[in-house]
Amino acid sequence: MKITGIRTFLMHAGQPDPSKWASDERSGEGASTQLRDTRNWLFLKIDTDEGITGIGECSGWPRVIETAIHDLAPLLIGEDPAHIERLWQKLHIAMMGHGMLGTVGGGAMTGIDMALWDIKGKALGVPVWMLLGGKVRDRIPIYSHANTPERALAIKQRGIKAIKCGGVADPVRKVAALREAVGDDMDIAIDLHGPPWLTPADACRLVRALEPYELMWVEDPIAPDNLEGYKRIRDAAHVPLAAGERSATIFGERELIERELVDVIQPDTGRAGGITQMKKIAAMAEAHHIQMAPHCGSLGPVAEYAALHLLAAIPNAFILERLDDDWDGRRRTIVPHPEQVDGLIAVPDAPGLGCDIDEEFVARFPSGGNVSVPVPEAAGSYNPGTYNEHLYVQTRVARRSYYNR
After folding, report:
1. Which of 16-20, 30-34, 104-108, 258-262 is the least confident region?
2. How many CB atoms lie within 10 A of CB 289?
3. Which of 178, 180, 290, 303 has its CA 20 to 30 A from that of 80?
4. Which of 12, 92, 145, 193 is catalytic?
């Protein structure tokens, strides 16, 4: 079998319903206008001379990654798609030569790698999880996003047993209100990602303030490049930490794992380097008793399928981030759409990834903008008078009310 071509499908993934996202502070009218064109999904298909086509998905900076994919295509055409590891190394070396080993290079390699696994599964007539060593579990637990008690209770009524709230604005009051609403039989996580990021001193103080609420984890409490800061937080508080969505490949995730700076590693399913790399990341994490919960928050449904297969096959799978009602078009993009029952999704059994995109539906939503916009001033994420500075890190150490309910 030989690769004959690569096709890409870039779509504007609709205007997300802000009430369904952890970062729903952005829900003002101006914010909705800003968000309209910033979420894009990039799918690709690899064709072969035997009529088998594999599908993948990429994230990171979609229109830039789309260009990278087409630049990489000559390295793949004519190759046997079965040799996944060799092709991954070939792509990795090419991206390294151009200084693109971050999430752009990782995103391009991810979609290609995902499609190669899909081809191999289809050619052999087995699901991808079988190629990864078989099932450890046949259902995957999920969590959804909620920033308000009303949204949290609606999720709970659907049988989902875990939620994540977000934003650096007023986190203690937010978590307290959610815990009071859902009780103790529902897990709660909080995503503090910036910008603006908290300083390590602020993060230590905040995480200690969150201890009484028995959180599932605190995610991205400080800037991702501040590894020493993560150590300070680990030493200061007894709350599980999660991070890793902004890194790519085992090389990007290595220090978080080897230094045991997190309890949960969160490689992004669309830019971590593909199923090949995520399986290796999971193995590294297993050796350090770290759980894996792939980041899927802004991704489309093909990446979700890839995550389901991976989590089915690894022993340290924790939970999957799931947004299935943030945009009505999500369900129409993928065939079939995996349904959750009592907070669990059944692992697909069809050969390969077991899914396809509706190409005609995808074509109805051409890409708009390409990058995220700054958080609106009304979100409260920035201190008063600093929004237009677009700060990477901003201290809140003097705001006593920030750390109290």
Report:
1. 30-34
2. 9
3. 303
4. 193
Give the SS3 label for residue 12.
strand
pLDDT value at residue 386: 65
Pair 114, 189 in one domain: no
In which element (H, E) is residue 73 found? helix 62-76
With respect to residue 395, please indicate whether it lies within any of the assigned structural domains: no
Is residue 193 part of the annotated active site? The answer reads yes
Residue 148 belongs to domain with CATH number: 3.20.20.120
Task: Say if residue 232 is in the same domain as residue 337.
Answer: yes
70 belongs to the catalytic site: no
With respect to residue 392, please indicate whether it lies within any of the assigned structural domains: no
207 lies in which domain range? 130-363
Query: Which has the higher per-residue pLDDT, 378 or 360?
Result: 360
Determine, yes or no, domain membership for 281: yes
Residue 387 pLDDT more than 90? no
- CB-count burial class (<10 Å; 0-12, 13-18, 19+) for 298: buried
Distance in angstroms (rounded) separating the CA atoms of residues 357 and 315: 29
Angle at which helix 249-258 crosses helix 227-236, to 10 degrees, equals: 30
Q: Which of 12, 92, 295, 309 is catalytic?
A: 295
pLDDT at 119 over 50: yes
Residue 25's pLDDT is 46
In a shared domain, residues 94 and 149: no
Q: Is the pLDDT of residue 87 over 80?
A: yes
End-to-end CA distance of the chain: 61
* Tokens 């230590």, residue located: 204
153 within some domain:
yes
Domain of 64, CATH number, reads 3.30.390.10
Q: What is the pLDDT of residues 42-76, one digit of tens each?
A: 999 999 999 999 999 998 788 889 999 999 999 99
Whether residue 116 is found in the same domain as residue 173: no
Using the 3D structure, point to which of 93, 125, 157 is the last residue of a domain.
125
Residues 177 and 308 in one domain: yes
Tokens of 324: 């299935």
